[in-house]
Amino acid sequence: MFRICASLLLALCLTACEETVVESLVPFEATGTIVAWCSLQPSPCLDGVDAAPFVLAIPVRPGVASEGTLTLTVSGDLDDPVRETLRVRLEGVDLGVIVNNDPSDDAFDHPTDMGVDCETITMTAEISVVDLVSIVADGLLELTFSPPGSESDIDLPGCADSDEIVSATIEYLWTV
Fold first, then answer.
1. For a pLDDT cut of 70, what percent of the chain falls above it?
2. Is the dihedral of CA 112, 131, 94, 43 positive or negative?
3. Phi, psi for 87 (deg, rounded to 5)
4. Is the bond leading into 157 cis (omega within 30 degrees of zero)?
């Protein structure tokens, strides 16, 4: 009788003591900022000069478990909806042209998409979990900002260098 009870007790203990692995979802947030972005161009942002695209790279954590929110904050000489705009690409995913007075042609939620000289504009876009998984797989999120080329009129010194800011924050849940 003692052996049966001891065997039963050992079996119950082994069953109850098994490790249970529970995945946790943890909020992740990362921000990157470029200040004086126009003066950092290989060719300065001058009227009639082909303004080069510039890249903002943000270290991120793979293991995405939800859609993400991308928040952009931009400032600069961005008040002309034709010649002072920025096309935004997130690792090949075209998010559209911002600050061109047309909120329907980009993924961001800014109600007017209107640019303002040397003042801060903030907007957000939702990034699907499918896109986000492949975007952050290498541990780096890269945003490419493209001025409108030779039509650009993002003048230097349209704003003080400290007023030329592009900042991006990505937020999502990741699995621990």
1. 70
2. positive
3. -85, 135
4. yes
Tokens at 11, concatenated: 């079996």
How many angstroms separate the CA atoms of 16 and 131, rounded?
40
| Calpha distance 47→44 (Å, rounded) | 9
Question: What is the reported pTM?
Answer: 0.79
| Mean pLDDT, rounded, for 98-119 | 88
pLDDT, tens digit, 9 for 90 and up, residues 117-164: 878 889 999 999 999 999 999 999 999 988 876 566 665 456 665 667
